[in-house]
Amino acid sequence: MHVQTHETWFPPHPKSVKKENKPEIPKVDFADICGQEGARRAAEIAVSGFHNILFIGPPGSGKTMLARRLPTIMPEMTFEESLEITKVYSVAGLLTEKDPLIRQRPFRSPHHTSSPQALAGGGRIPGPGEITLAHRGVLFLDEMPEFSRKSLEILRQPLEDKEIHLSRAAGTYIFPASFMLAAAMNPCPCGFYPDMNRCRCTSGEITHYLGKISQPLLERIDICTEVPAVSFSKMKKKIAGESSAQIRKRVEAVQEIQRERYKKEKFCFNGELDGRKLEKYCVMTGGADKLLEQAYEQFQFSTRAYHKILKTARTIADMESSEKIKEEHICEALAYRAYDKKYWS
User: Fold this and answer.
1) Is the pLDDT of residue 9 over 80?
2) How far are the Cα atoms of 7, 35, 243, 321 from residue 246, in angstroms, in the given order?
3) 194 prior amide bond cis, ω within 30
4) Pairing verdict, β 121-122 and 2-5
5) Of 40, 34, 105, 102, which Cα lies nearest the Cα of 67?
6) How far is Cα 32 from Cα 99, in angstroms, rounded to an integer?
7) Residue 22: band (very low, low, confident or very high) from pLDDT cuts 50, 70, 90
């Protein structure tokens, strides 16, 4: 954490730290989720490449369940990461005397009534907000459209730069913000669009609801996936899916591929690739290149959306231990951009 200021600022004394608010990951498991194979796959891709993800579906379909289980398939933190996050929580006064070292990846889930200052951090001498408290972990926004537009727009800069800048008269404070954004939302106020047999919303209400999320913010989300209602037959059978431990082993293998690839870079994950590095590390086959070009022209993607597709495809290729990005990898990555076109077209 770097602070550019004329003032010298020290973390709170260990005896002054609070005894609550320690970030704890619920004792949950992906095996608890019934069905939702597509969303589970999307979640695994997102964690493997540290991509931002948005779950869209009707109430009670399992969006929040999926999001809360994301930390359970993340690799354990290194000692250096633990120290880094512990420093953040020390600054915020959120350490416990019993266990002063943060050992679990943060999972922060601020309420939609949270103010922009609560998310970004603030005060006369700015302290970390939810964005920084989620560093190296997950920031989960449930009911995303219910957050104020100002609060959501604050996310744009840290999602791009992996740090957040707070300016005060004394100087500029820079806090780390390398987090994975996970968000969940209904497709409309009542939650059942586009099922017009159940949806009670007018077209104007739907447009207004979806319009709360700006296009620039939407383009910073790599993966957008639907979470449909679970059928009665699947719910009754209660067939357990793969456990978090099984998925985490695959995630660890994929992340090891990325660490080896980027060992000379200042980043570790595909989701952190910038435009200058894409051409070097995202080599495609001829067919994949042509397919992506056709999609780019047909759907009129922005440059940022194009980069997101390519980075997601890189992760999918790594999951299959493929050196080059193939057509099928591009197809799946494009599918994760299709839903935002479906709802926000």
Assistant:
1) no
2) 48, 16, 5, 18
3) yes
4) unpaired
5) 40
6) 29
7) very low
> Nearest-5° angle of CA 176, CA 29, CA 52?
35
Contact 270, 314 (CB under 8 A): yes
For 53, the 3-state DSSP assignment is strand
Query: Whose structure tokens read 């820079």?
Result: 174
Expressed in percent and rounded to 5, the helix, strand and coil fractions of the chain are 45, 15, 40
Q: What angle do CA 173, 179, 184 make, to 5 degrees?
A: 125
Backbone angles phi, psi at 33, to 5 degrees: -85, 125
List Cα–Cα distances, 241 to 36, 210, 244, 319, in angstroms. Answer: 9, 32, 9, 19
C-beta of residue 92 within 8 angstroms of C-beta of residue 138:
no
Instruction: Report d(CA 9, CA 16) in Å as an integer.
Output: 15
Helix (H, G, I), strand (E, B) or coil at 34: strand
- For the entire predicted model, the pTM comes to 0.89
- In 3-state terms, what secondary structure has residue 153? helix
Q: Is the pLDDT of residue 17 over 70?
A: no
257-268: b (≥16 Cβ within 10 Å) or e: bbeebbeeeeee
Q: Ramachandran region of residue 60, left (φ > 0), alpha (ψ -120 to 50) or beta? A: left
pLDDT at 1: 54
101 touches 88 (CB < 8 A): no
**Rounded Cα–Cα distance for residues 269 and 262 (Å):** 8
pLDDT digits (tens, 9 = 90+) for 197-219: 899 999 999 999 999 999 999 99
Assess contact for 63 and 55: CB atoms under 8 A: yes
Q: Which domains does the chain have, with CATH numbers?
A: 24-237 (3.40.50.300), 244-344 (no CATH)
Tell me which H or E stretch contains 107. strand 107-108
Reported as a single tens digit per residue, the pLDDT across 290-322 is 999 999 999 889 999 999 999 999 999 999 999
Report pLDDT digits (tens) over 138-160: 999 999 999 999 999 999 999 99
Query: Strands 171-176, 2-5: parallel, antiparallel or unpaired by DSSP?
Result: antiparallel
